[in-house]
Protein: NAD(P)H-dependent oxidoreductase
Organism: Chitinophaga qingshengii
Amino acid sequence: MDIIEKLEWRYAVKKFDPAKKLTATQLDRITTATRLSASSYGLQPYKVLIVENPAIRERLKAASWNQSQITDASHLVVFARVSNLNESHVDDYTNNIAATRHINQEDLAGFAGVMKGTVNRLDEAGAAAWTSKQAYLALGTLLTAAAAEGIDACPMEGFDAARYDEILGLKDKGLATVVIAAIGFRAADDAMQHAKKVRKPMAELVELI
């Protein structure tokens, strides 16, 4: 199938088959694709947590209004934003650029200045909104990559973020939960897989100017 067929095939799975698990190779491809996601400046001010532990997932299920996807999917992916965005994150990034591209830090001074200017202009609410947007970009990449690999997924916002932070110990790590996705394989009796996909007509959604 081409990418359009893959996206027609995917849907937000309501019922996963708990007996079907991703292979190590499949999980690696999904996480590698997510790592390659677009991000403003390339800064990636978030972390991607892959939750496998059954006991932890049971606790997270209780913090997600007992939605079955949390425990029945092969893996649960938690996107957590950096909660204390500051210049050190820019420094870490420019150090990575210098090492990866074998260039001098001095050559990155202008770029670093632009990024630090952006970071320093953001108040707490602004930083939370901006870093959350970056995490959602990564979520979109994960969903598309999963579809391309024939892996099912369900993006989810129905959960108590504060409880997730507590259960996963994120506050001490300078992180805060933004959005989650369950990934695995649809159950044969999940009725939603047979529902026709509903989207706005192209002429209503897309406008050429």
